[in-house]
Amino acid sequence: MAGSNHFFTSTTMLYLVFLYVHLLLFLRFSGVAVSQSIIQSLPGFVGALPFELETGYVSVDDSNDVQLFYYFVKSENNPTEDPLIVWFTGGPGCSVLTALMFENGPLYFKHAKYNGSLPTLMLNPNSWTKISNILYVDAPVGTGFSYSRSLEGSFTSDTKSAKQSYIFIRKWLMHHPEFFSNPLYICGDSYAGMVVPIIVQDISDGIEIGHKPSINLKGYLLGNPATDRHAELNSQIHFFHHMGILSDELLESAKKHCKGEYVKVDPSNVQCIKDLQAVSQCTAKLNPSHILEPSCGQVWTPKCKKIIRDRNLLEKNLCSNLISLPPIPLLKCRNYGHMLSYYWANNDGVRKALNVRKGTVQEWTRCNLDGINYLKNVKTSTGYHLSISKRHYRSLIYSGDHDANVPFFNTQTWIRSLNYSIIDEWRPWFVDGQIGGYTRTYANQMTFATVKGGGHTAPEYRPNECFNMFKRWLSYEPL
Amino acid sequence: MAGSNHFFTSTTMLYLVFLYVHLLLFLRFSGVAVSQSIIQSLPGFVGALPFELETGYVSVDDSNDVQLFYYFVKSENNPTEDPLIVWFTGGPGCSVLTALMFENGPLYFKHAKYNGSLPTLMLNPNSWTKISNILYVDAPVGTGFSYSRSLEGSFTSDTKSAKQSYIFIRKWLMHHPEFFSNPLYICGDSYAGMVVPIIVQDISDGIEIGHKPSINLKGYLLGNPATDRHAELNSQIHFFHHMGILSDELLESAKKHCKGEYVKVDPSNVQCIKDLQAVSQCTAKLNPSHILEPSCGQVWTPKCKKIIRDRNLLEKNLCSNLISLPPIPLLKCRNYGHMLSYYWANNDGVRKALNVRKGTVQEWTRCNLDGINYLKNVKTSTGYHLSISKRHYRSLIYSGDHDANVPFFNTQTWIRSLNYSIIDEWRPWFVDGQIGGYTRTYANQMTFATVKGGGHTAPEYRPNECFNMFKRWLSYEPL
């Protein structure tokens, strides 16, 4: 018994120590640092939400009070076992509401003329939350409803944002221990292509050195990802030529005169400049996010619209990046929905329902491109891809093939540069008997797929195809 | 007075001789050889037609009783002065109803589920007949409602069809002398690209040698025109690569192994055959007429569907080219409308309204590809383009840029091969402030234009853009 007692005492002691360590960890990552609330209904949506929505803040830098806002949507299928997706939107500076309301989230704005009342919300039948838990994060700080109360806290960079996102994920998981064991994927699109691979690397490094909580990281997914902006911008001229936007002769002339460099051009190279002016004439009025869709410009915020109307010159400067933009888009334009998002997310009732902290973000902006203090300190994320996929994290990289921002064939090019062997050769993938796009699988569990007819944010343009692609990939099925 | 009398007598004589010559000409080209009727209403269309429609037959080979059927729609603007367009559809063997009901004509089928009653007709707001008189011709013989009662008469070729079309135009004009002075354009799309330039050449030759009636030929217009089928088919592999349907590696391999020849392949060239099989795997389920639209196959005729259902093996052979085709397309498919055209054009009431001669065409087929006796005896029509545009006939060649049948850049290539100097350099053209496509004008009044997002029959996919393009070109305005 003594022995037994001794054993009891020592295991009790061990258990107490274990609890104490977890308590310390919990305290370090919790308290006022994390807030969360369950949302039963949302203004604009009729009735109770038929899915579980939680919003909240996670402090990722206590000394500078940097708070990242999130929307968490539980899987409508089996939240206990379905994967946990952490989703980041690009920009940098674009609110994750863009993904939640326009791409793969459970809601979207009814496309109807704005009459001054709150925009109506509808259910998205192709929401990825039908098969996965999705944690949508407004990152970096300054994006959407994320904020810092200090100037120092407002500064971020690719690597700093990744570090803060990693802190975010750890803290959020500590407060949601029921998701410890779910397979976890870090995902996003557009500029998130620069940051997601770094977050994956940071998590992976954390796992190797035994960071708590233990994260069941399985891989990552990226749509039309920025990877090397210089290479991508340089490749646009070829994409435009492929798509019939530039003539053969102009491409040949530009290749000859600019010698493959169309971004950092020597100002004394008159012939090259002349060719690039001709290129600009052909592309200036295109919609780069989907070359076949009408170009309707960007929309401004209701606040700035008011400022412009009131001709308040002082405040006008605050909107300097907005005042030269076109007026409310035509109803037929896809970005009419973007405009609706401004009216919705800046409505007091909506903010209250989402538990947005008063006075933290004066005006929600869909893409706060010029309003954040962000240093792009990573030139290319290919090294991160190489590093993490060699650690056996699986990946899906997809490209809407009508996007000129990140042309699909430049994505093919950097993937080829990783020198992975080909496992499953280039072939079409199908949805409902129709070609959804083309795919190829590489060693190190990397899959590339195009989404035929998709734009920069492919699920916005091809929702059914992208849902099926995502579902198959999550289930380890061939696309 | 005597002199005056003498003068009167001789001018009267001259006038009588003139009338006699015209009468002879008229008799040669008329009588039972031409029939025409004015249509006030059409089954499926509610109320009287708000435009003037005439249908009829013109005999183009009396000895073999070859009768070409036509639909003539008077301009809704100013028929006396607006140009006269003669429109031919491709195939060879596709009924011109395809153009009239799906492309640039005044009517289209309401896209609604077929319930056994006659399909409903609607007015096309972008009909080219709003600004021009259009004479739609079912050519060559065997197409649509055109027919021959003799076996010999059923045989045609590119050059013979062109000759018969020329006879058609002369005879039709003789019966419609009020259109003698209207500017005349010969137009069409797809395979009409092989024949229209020959017709223009024949008319031009006729003008030079003083054929009557005198034809006020101004030029021609062609959409996604076949010009050199071998070159076009060979260029498809590059088009598919440009559009992200083939991988870079597959294109490189095929180029290396097939040495630029992907159509007439040496069967012992195993590597090339292997590459082309991989190409086929990537393209087999594409819709070649518009690579972003669903592939819904071709539709069969109601009669053949009944034959297949009844398992009448003898008759089944008559439908051999149809029985392997898919069933009624999905409502969401563009070719659902094509199916409706079968039900409409084979309805007894419709045929009666159109004054189709009983017993001449048992079953109307949208594209009678295998049912005509047609010899493709012209390899390329570039020589005709060269010859006629040097005679100062103006031309507009346009390409829907998402068509794989006749890829736009192969059209650019043969135009470049004409060695015309460039008058107006490659630039976008606009409709409602949006890019409609790109254009370039060459010497000899030749204009090339792409239709952004257009398919093989561009006005079917981009009606507003194509109407504006046509209008500007007709008015001698820059696109």
Automatic annotation (TrEMBL), chains A, B:
Keywords of the record, alphabetical order, are:
Glycoprotein, Secreted, Signal
GO function terms (MF aspect): serine-type carboxypeptidase activity; sinapoyltransferase activity
Q: Please, one GO biological process term? A: proteolysis
Q: Which InterPro entries match?
A: AB_hydrolase_fold (IPR029058), Peptidase_S10 (IPR001563)
Instruction: Specify whether Secreted is a keyword of the entry.
Output: yes
| Top-level division of the source organism's lineage | Eukaryota
- Where does the signal peptide begin and end? none
A matching Pfam family = Peptidase_S10
Q: Which family does it belong to?
A: Belongs to the peptidase S10 family.
Official protein name in the record: Uncharacterized protein
Q: State the organism named in the record.
A: Aquilegia coerulea
